[in-house]
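Notebook entry, cofactor series.
This is the third protein in the set we're modelling with a bound small molecule. For this one the ligand is guanosine-5'-triphosphate. I'm keeping the input format identical across the series so the outputs can be compared line by line later. Sequence and SMILES below, as received.
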Amino acid sequence: METVILAVVIAVVVLGAIGGLVVGSRRKRPLPPPPPTAPDITAPPAEPHVGDEAEAPSDESRRTIEEVGLPGGPAPVVVEEPSAEAPAIEVPEPTAGRLVRLRSRLSRSQNALGQGLLTLLSREHLDEDTWEEVEDTLLTADVGVQPTQELVESLRERVKVLGTRTPQELRALLREELLKLVGTDVDRAVRTEPEGRTPGIVMVVGVNGTGKTTTTGKLARVLVADGRTVVLGAADTFRAAAADQLQTWGERVGAHTVRGPEAGDPASVAFDAVKEGKEMGVDVVLIDTAGRLHTKTGLMDELGKVKRVVEKHAPVDEVLLVLDATTGQNGLVQARVFAEVVDISGIVLTKLDGTAKGGIVVAVQRELGVPVKLVGLGEGADDLAPFEPEAFVDALIGE
Ligand SMILES: Nc1nc2c(ncn2[C@@H]2O[C@H](COP(=O)(O)OP(=O)(O)OP(=O)(O)O)[C@@H](O)[C@H]2O)c(=O)[nH]1
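Returned structure with ligand:
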């Protein structure tokens, strides 16, 4: 019995000791960290990095900023796309009599050339020195050597015959002689009405900055003013802004512009322009070409290519060379080079309003054997005028 009691006591003591150990060891363990609660964020969340999980996509359809109303605020406003407004189509001024209307723009040439000559010829004694001054006046106005000599010779002869001279007689004499130099019996109409087919095809060529793109745009207005329909071809693909510039000119008079990719093939734009012009049934297709530097043979060759490609449709009716009247002799050099590459059929002299060298009209015609057909007398949209020899000479000598 005593043995049993002893065994029970030992068992109780051993169990107690074990329990105490377990409890004791548990108490010594550090407390587990508290469950995470939402922290107060004071700094922006870090940027995601490569390999970070993307947020789970939400199926909820997103609302646009217009749909999210402010609490208690007004109902969301529906913003409507502004309807693209068609630009107003302008009605250009008629072309008849434009040069007469714009003749005051030739005042610089009038003072230097017309008035200069009249003053010299009115001198009582026309000695050698005076005739030399006449010659200098003509040369300074860029009339050119050969035409100057012809004019001086003729004037000397006629003044001698005339004897005493009244200002009216002198004026009439000079008018006649200048008209002879400029030429009155040439067809100066821009050829846009080929027989038996439409559209007429006009190419506009010239060196950068002569006013070529502007002239093409103004010419579209000239044609529209005369009741024709026009498609423009922006084959100046080298200068990015040229196509925009041309398109703006076209839109103003309701003319469609055919364009190509920037730096694309000018010949293909020109080809497409004529194709679209045919499909649309317009009267005239005007092609603006890149302002080629006359020293760059490759570019010049390309101009020839534009013409050849266009002629797969039909012959080009008119090739207009745009020359800046203020560049004088340099303009003549350009004219010569262009004439070698394409057959120039007409000349447009721009910026005659800004020069005293109106005599370039005579010189350039002589140089190319091609008539001046249009003259630029300002930057205004309707400042391009059909060239009329009488109105031009009258403006020079001041009626
Ligand atoms: N005063 C005056 N300015 C003109 C006349 N014709 C054109 N201009 C101006 O000349 C500048 C050059 O004209 P553009 O048409 O851009 O010249 P562009 O020859 O086409 O030049 P590229 O496209 O670079 O070949 C423009 O500021 C025109 O307004 C004119 O008859 N008189």
